[in-house]
Amino acid sequence: MTKRYGDNTILNELDLHIPSGQFVAVVGRSGGGKSTLLRLPGRSGKTKRRRTAGWRDAPGAIQDDTRMMFQDARLLPWKTVIDNVGLGLKGAWRDAALQALASVGLESRAQEWPAALSGGQKQRVALARALIHRPRLLLLDEPLGALDALTRLEMQELIVSLVAGAWLYGPAGHARRQ
């Protein structure tokens, strides 16, 4: 695939195959195209692609079996923790949301507001929100970059343990493990 912004080529004839169940980190300088690469699966637009096996072509939308986690938690401040985890779900989702929160160690904080949480706790809520959908593909765009070193290590271990056997893919950031 090739991706350009105006006259600037960000990705040039990239051919990438990642087997299911693999953990892949993309490392590079700022502005090197890491986040652009993450945003390509399942998106349409001015991207020249030969084939995207495993992804359906849905105009401008990330697929149902794909979730993305960002550097900031992107929680809605007017919704409780459990409502942030269940965002967009229909039917009887509360039990599943509580289980997702329990898996990240935050079941007891379900009724609290995001403002009451630390940065690491907010990221764990964002992880629970991503994992409740049981995504086949989890994209991580430096979700631990704003955390302190100790919390970052704990979150790394948590992510690896929770998604063992899933296809986890995200940039490592700028020459540091993440």
Description of the molecule:
It is an enzyme of class 3 (hydrolase). By secondary structure, the chain is an alpha/beta fold. The protein has 5 helices and 7 strands; from the N terminus they run E-E-E-H-E-E-H-H-H-E-H-E. It has a single domain (2-173), classed as 3-Layer(aba) Sandwich (Rossmann fold). The protein has helices at 34-39, 81-85, 94-103, 119-131, 149-162, and strands spanning 2-5, 8-11, 23-27, 47-48, 66-69, 137-140, 167-173. A hairpin with a 2-residue loop joins strand 1 (2-5) and strand 2. The longest helix has 14 residues, at 149-162. The chain is globular. Mean pLDDT is 76; it is low at 44-61 and 165-178.
Q: Which structural traits does this protein have?
A:
EC 3.6.3.-, globular, alpha/beta, transport, four-stranded parallel beta sheet, 17% strand, membrane, 27% helix, Rossmann fold, disordered C terminus, ABC_transporter-like_CS, 178 residues, three-stranded antiparallel beta sheet
> What's the order of the H and E elements?
EEEHEEHHHEHE
CATH homology group:
P-loop containing nucleotide triphosphate hydrolases
Task: Identify low-pLDDT runs.
Answer: 44-61, 165-178
Beta-strand percentage range: 15-25%
Overall form: globular
Strand line-up in the sheet with most strands: 3-7-6-5
Give the averaged pLDDT, no decimals: 76
The separation of the N and C termini measures 25 Å
Characterize the main sheet.
4 strands, parallel
**What Rg do the Cα atoms give?**
17 Å
CATH class: Alpha Beta
In CATH, the architecture is: 3-Layer(aba) Sandwich
What is the CATH fold-level name? Rossmann fold
Classification by helices and strands = alpha/beta
Count of distinct structural domains: 1
